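Late entry, iron/sulfur cluster complex.
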Amino acid sequence: MAILEVKNLNLGFQFENDFKQALYDVSFSLEQGKMLSIVGESGCGKTMSAMSILRLIPKTARITSGKILFHGEDLLEKTQKDMQRIRGAKIALIPQDPMTSLNPLYTVGDQLLEILKIHQNIQGEAALQKAIEAFEIVQIPGAKSRLNNYPHEFSGGMKQRAIIAMALCCNAEILIADEPTTALDVTIQAQIMKILHEIRNYQNTSILLITHDLALVSEHTDEIAVMYAGRIVERGNNSEFFSNPTHPYSKALLKSIPTNRGEQLETIKGQPPTLSQKIEGCKFNPRCEYKMEICTQQIPAQKEITPEHKCACFLI
Ligand code: SF4
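Prediction complete; structure with ligand written out below:
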């Protein structure tokens, strides 16, 4: 059952005399205990889609239409006070840079205990045990003694684990992980992905992962949505997407994944369009090797390849 459904979300930015649309009819759903990865290059709208769920969008951004249903209730109709109760407690964010979420003046343990007090009303020995448990789940060695450390005493990977432990202490139903491994080296990236995978499996937490790295998610994610220039261009479950990637942009992303066979990497020529760039038809057409006349005239609608796999391209 879907715990979260984003339906036809449209969002834009208000500039002085101009309104520029950034998200076009973005729709996806996240099932209980599953991981959905939204994949695309920087600026494609994936972070803005995720931040819309938490209603943490920039002041200049405006959601013009759509619904964000959490347990069937539209988050876009909630008051700011309601949203404060939902953020952290029900839907928690794991940011790209863990330093933005850790207060350098307090020990990591104190910050965890504070969260347990606020969100779960647990204090004293019971809170300490919960904090140790959360550190153990995210595989921080010597959990009890590491609670006494300040954030600067943790490596980047350990800080990110501590942030995930904080989200666990909130008992959040959904974790939104925004490029959670970007600043980490490859080995630590794999460890963080494994931890997220285990949290999903054993705690039944739903995870929305925002990433530019298809290789990172291939083993762990249940569903994939590929975004380009503010639109979801392909979505599917893991096996169907990876066995039959269909959109030329998805194929190009997959070809640009490094392999250990020493093959030369292919790059995607050109750049994603900026907000002010006007491109008629399919926005991928200036970079697409399969471009046809219709691609510069009309926007392709999403078509069903199978019930679990959809793609927006005139080749289908
Ligand atoms: Fe390429 Fe046309 Fe498909 Fe767009 S619609 S991805 S330009 S083939």
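The pocket of iron/sulfur cluster is lined by residues 247-248, 282, 284-285, 288, 290-292, 295, 300, 313-315 (CB under 6 Å). Will revisit in the morning.
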